[in-house]
Amino acid sequence: MIRIAPSIPATAVRPPSRRRWVPYVLIATAITVLVAALAARALTQEQERYQERAVIATRNLSLLLDQHISDVLDKISVVVQSVAQEYPQHRTFEGRTNPQWAQQYLLKQKDLLPEVISLQIADRDGTVLYGNDIPQGTISRVGDRDYFVRARDDRTGKVTMTGPVFARTSRQWSIVLSRRLTDASGQFAGVVYANLPVSYFHEVFSSIDLGPKGEATVHTADQTLVYRYPLESGQMGKRDESGELAKRIAQQPDSGEYVAATAPDGIKRSNAYRLLSRYPFYVVVGLAVDDYLGGWEQSLLTVFGLAGLAVAMTWLAAWQVYRAIGRQTAEISHRRKVSAELEGYRIHLEDLVAQRTSELQATNDNLSDTLFAMERVGIGIFWIDPRSGRFIYANRCATEMSGYGADELMALHFRNIAPNLEIPRFIRFRRQRRAQFETICQTQGGSRIPIEVTMYYLPGRTKEKARVIAFVTDITRRKEAEAALRRAKEAAEDAAQAKSAFLANMSHEIRTPMNAILGTVHLMRRSDAAADWVEELHTIDAAGEHLLHIVNDILDLSKVEADRLSLEETDLVV
């Protein structure tokens, strides 16, 4: 009887000794350090990029604000200059200005300046004569105001700028643009001035996105606060020469950037300041660090999460590899112990394996030859209109396969050469967009050849209509090869069954007379035979038993091939 090797028990698997997992710990630690270093590097670079974008954004915003505010101040200066030039030309012979003309002209010019709250003219004593926003029934005097004094004393004819000034009439902080007026003789005749409220900066600053904690301010050249957005009215008009802005302006007067906590809220911001190109004012734009680093903080959490996941997976993988190698080592050790028993099985099964290998090699050669032929045979390609079912293209192999010319195929329906392909199946294929099947090709000569069809549905595009692309292969030779393989298999199975039957019959035919011979010897040994025959009878009995064991082994082999062998459990003496 053939013995079956016992399976490897689970208890035979032993993990490697503790000292063997030290390399895995070192490798996992090195990977962990590498992941941490890469994560830290990536976060540092990401933070630098966020800071760089904030600097560029504040710089661009300060430049845009410079252009916008300078344009508005230019427009006001032009109007003030225009009034100063027109005013002396409209005096009467008595040397007085026509009041009606002056009032109408100022109101008309004021309409050109929606940003200012008032455009007025005061005489040489500072009494306001013309313009809008003049209280009725009262006399308004501005002779003591700084902008009046500066315009009166400025004989260059330029527009002077003063502020921030708290206007008495409008009760608002404003910037005043003023110019000296002269009479026909060139003597001082008064001052024309326009009040630009600092609330105008609120409209400008609120139109740009500074973030939840962003800030924008306007300062004079001597660091006096003109306006802060968001509004902090308590600081307006105050001068600050001790802050970070004053230090930066002292180093770079025209423009610059810095990161610092700004008053009065103490929030750390990335700031960019810029001196207006034509006026003595600084515009400062600040983006809060907490605002523009919000995305970086999200990236920080994401990177830390991914790094932690990578580290966890690394350690888990190291532990799994360690356990797998331990099991593999134990399994190899156990297999070495039973290799001697398997060597005996190898000798008995060698002939059977060689025979089966030869059969498989022959089958594989046949399949290889078939595959070689299929790869080099022509494949027919058809294009079909999915709506009409007519051919719209066919290659040369397709025409040779069907027997039709290319022009003839263009006038045919696909069922003319594939009569077994039903219309409902073709409609279902359009929804699935791919199908592969075998069918019959009806050639022009009337012959029917088996074919394999692989179809793809190509939807229509902008300038192309939808179409079905069919790859058609003549599988006549493959069908013939399959039939030959089936016949060869059936013949091999018949031969194997005949051999098994022959071995079984021969074993029975040999064992029957052998049993008779052994029985006769047994009877002779029990009789009163001469002492000279005892040794010969013993030799015959031993040889017969040996021959009977050989016959039984042959019978067992025939049972193995016929799948009728039954296993027996017996005690073995080791």
Q: How would you summarize this macromolecular structure in one to three sentences?
A:
With 574 residues, this protein is α+β, with helices and mostly antiparallel strands. It has helices at 22-86, 99-111, 146-153, 199-206, 244-251, 289-292, 294-376, 396-402, 406-410, 423-432, 476-526, 534-561; strands spanning 118-123, 128-131, 160-166, 173-182, 188-197, 215-220, 225-229, 255-262, 267-275, 281-288, 379-384, 391-394, 434-442, 448-458, 467-474.
Fill in the keyword field for this structure:
574 residues, alpha+beta, five-stranded antiparallel β-sheet, 15 strands, 51% helix, elongated, disordered N terminus
The whole-angstrom Rg is 54 Å
Percentage of residues in DSSP E strands: 15-25%
Q: Stretches where pLDDT falls below 50 for ≥5 residues?
A: 1-16
Largest sheet: 5 strands, antiparallel
Helix content: 40-55%
**General shape:** elongated
pLDDT averaged over residues = 80
Structural class: alpha+beta
Number of strands: 15
N-to-C order of helices and strands: HHEEHEEEHEEHEEEHHEEHHHEEEHH
Describe this structure in words.
The chain has 574 residues and is of the alpha+beta class. It has twelve helices and 15 strands. A hairpin with a 6-residue loop joins strand 11 (379-384) and strand 12 (391-394). The protein starts with 21 loop residues before the first helix and ends in a 13-residue tail after the last helix.
